[in-house]
Amino acid sequence: MNKSIAIDENIFHNAVKFYSTMFNLPPLASKIYSYLIFDFEKVGITFDELVEVLSASKSSVSTNISFLIHSHLIIDINKMDERKRYFIINDNYKKIRFEKIVKKMQDELQLIEDLKNFSNRKEHDLKTENYKSLLNKNILNIQESLNKL
Predict the structure, then answer these.
(1) Which residues in the chain belong to E strands, given as ranges?
(2) Angstrom distance (rounded) from CA 143 to CA 103
(3) How confident is the model at residue 131 (pLDDT cuts 50, 70, 90)?
(4) In the predicted model, what is the mean pLDDT of the chain?
(5) Higher-scoring residue by pLDDT: 81, 133
(6) CATH of domain 9-89
(7) What is the rounded (10 degree) CA torsion for 85, 89, 91, 96?
(8) Could you give the strand order of the β-sheet that contains 74-78, starting from the edge strand earlier in sequence?
């Protein structure tokens, strides 16, 4: 089977390294995700092609595809009159990712406030207040950008 897409090996290896760290992906999941990035036309890559191109077992590819789908990094599509599933990058993931970042910052703000209330301290710690201000500014900035996506 031939590759249905052209890839640059150097960029591919850099992407594998980057996404394994960025998304905390297992090695094979990072390779699958990085390979799918090169599908610029979003025609989709079949399971069989991923098994062959990545020289991995069917069960390993299946497990890692399930992980990527569950993580909302990729989606599967079915084409008319075909039983095969095709996998593509989830374009909505950028929005999902930043929504998660905002949620984590909001959770941290709540935790800071809960700790302050629990300690019954009335004085304001300048560093903590500056940090809270930074979190709030970043939340607003990201939310404004998300509205544009």
Answers:
(1) 45-46, 74-78, 85-89
(2) 11
(3) very high
(4) 92
(5) 133
(6) 1.10.10.10
(7) 100
(8) 45-46, 85-89, 74-78
Q: Which tops the pLDDT comparison, 106 or 113?
A: 106
Alpha-carbon distance of 7 to 34, in angstroms, equals 10
Count other Cβ atoms within 10 Å, centred on residue 31: 24
Place of tokens 């390779």: 31
* Domain range list for the chain: 9-89, 93-148
> Helix 126-148 vs helix 93-119: angle between axes, to the nearest 10 degrees?
160
Q: Calculate the alpha carbon distances from 61 to 17, 42, 90 in Å.
A: 18, 20, 18
What percent of the chain is predicted at pLDDT more than 90? 72
pTM of the model: 0.78
pLDDT at 86 (0 to 100): 96
Quickly tell me which residue has 């941290």 as its tokens.
Answer: 108
